Amino acid sequence: MGNDKIINEGSQPEVEKLHRILRNLLIIIISILVTLSLIIFILFIVPVLQETTSGHKTEITNNQELKRDASYKKKISLMTSDIQRLSRKYSAYTSGQSYIVINTTGNRFSLYKNKKLIREGFCSTGKLTMLKTERGDKVWVFKTPKGKHWIHGKITNPSWTRPDWSFIEEGLPVPAKDDPSRYESGVLGDYAMSMGDGYLIHGTIYKRFLGMPVTHGCVRLNDEDLEVVYNTLSIGSKVYIF
User: Fold this and answer.
1) Superfamily of domain 99-241
2) How confident is the model at residue 6 (pLDDT cuts 50, 70, 90)?
3) Partner of 110 for a Cys bridge, out of 90, 101, 134, 190, CB 3.0 to 4.6 A?
4) Are strands 191-196 and 199-202 parallel, antiparallel or unpaired?
5) Residue 59, class by beta-carbon neighbours within 10 Å (0-12 exposed, 13-18 middle, 19+ buried)?
């Protein structure tokens, strides 16, 4: 009995400490719940009560008085002018004439006729590299020029005249301008279309590289796509490159 009494008296402070911890924990939980309830009430319930008591609901109405307001009419007029301007600009870029769009990032092309997409697929564009002569007096950057272009000319069974950089890139001596080694046939496919400044849309013997940026600036297509593009585009047709 004596030992039991000593144990009970000694454990009393521990019990009181546990009660204090539980009481504080309960107070914290209640505070959190009250705070959350207050936030929910302010954010959700109050707006609903206000709308219910006022009888007002937000809705789109055909307000004639608003339409007669000078500032409102001015804003509508400006928006209408912007829409008309953008429509004219869109029509200028997408006329009834056939055109082609070249995506140099994805190396894809899209061919349009009468404002409708009639063919799309892979192509190859500039590889974005630089070539210098050993003395550094000449520099070439191999990229496909972005922007708005147009077809300057069309030719079947084109022959490639190798420029100086073609020999320098292979570590070969540069021949004279009229040297026979400059002329190669069969490497540009059956058709070629000039975009000016030496840039062409043409075929390729390296079909496995289509869809990759591997050219020296020209746009390469496979044989089937090239034939459709050649027969669809005319001299003057737009070429949009981005």
Assistant:
1) L,D-transpeptidase catalytic domain-like (2.40.440.10)
2) very low
3) 101
4) antiparallel
5) exposed
CA dihedral (205, 158, 100, 105) in degrees, to 10, reads: 40
Contact 193, 151 (CB under 8 A): yes
Residue 151, classified by CB atoms within 10 Å of its CB into exposed (0-12), middle (13-18) or buried (19+), is buried
72 pLDDT band, cuts 50/70/90, is confident
Q: How many CA atoms does the CB half-sphere of 212 hold within 13 Å?
A: 7
| CA–CA distances in Å: residue 7 to residues 10, 14, 18, 44, 187 | 5, 12, 17, 55, 102
Sign, CA dihedral 47-53-57-63, equals negative
Bridge partner residues of 132 (DSSP): 139
Q: How confident is the model at residue 3 (pLDDT cuts 50, 70, 90)?
A: very low
Give the 3-state secondary structure of residue 121: strand
Residues 6+ apart with CB under 8 A from 185: 157, 159, 160
Q: How is the chain split into domains, by residue range?
A: 10-54, 67-95, 99-241
Q: What length is written for the chain?
A: 242
Going by DSSP bridges, is the β-strand pair 99-103/238-241 parallel, antiparallel, or unpaired?
parallel
Contact between 237 and 100 under an 8 Å Cβ cutoff? The reply is: yes
The model's pLDDT over 169-206, given as tens digits with 9 standing for 90+, comes to 999 999 999 999 999 999 999 999 999 999 999 999 99
**How many Cβ atoms from other residues are within 10 Å of residue 160's Cβ?**
17
